[in-house]
Write a structure and sequence with these properties.
Fusion Protein Consisting Of Minor Coat Protein, Glycine Rich Linker, Tola, And A His Tag, Chain: A, Domain 2; elongated; three-stranded antiparallel sheet; 8 strands
Length: about 100
């Protein structure tokens, strides 16, 4: 499994925009990075390459299409607790990850 090995606090959020081509058979062709996001661009491209799409149609026949794809990433809120542990959260979503040392 790929993925960034950077600490969560060092990764910035942002919007990743790709321009991709879908063949008449639904296969992903060329992928061009319009706007990258550090730590996410490579993984997003690999995820898109694994997908198959329904081809666009013109007059009932499948055609090659170019389209934008956008991913939005937000940096998690990270805080230290009194129990000497680390917890991650997203606004409005509650605690998503917590790690506490035994006392």
């Amino acid at each position: 499994m790929g993925g960034s090995r950077e600490p969560a606090t060092s990764i910035q959020g942002g919007t990743l925009v790709l321009e991709m081509t879908v063949s008449a058979s639904g296969e992903v062709g060329d992928i061009h990075v319009v706007q990258g996001v550090k730590g996410f661009t490579r993984e997003a491209i690999e995820a898109i390459k694994k997908r198959k799409f329904a081809a666009a149609r013109f007059e009932g026949k499948p055609v090659v299409t170019s389209l934008p794809v956008a991913f939005s990433f937000t940096q998690p809120i990270v805080w230290w607790t009194r129990r000497k542990g680390l917890a991650f959260s997203r606004p409005g979503k509650g605690v998503r990850f917590a790690l506490f040392k035994a006392a």
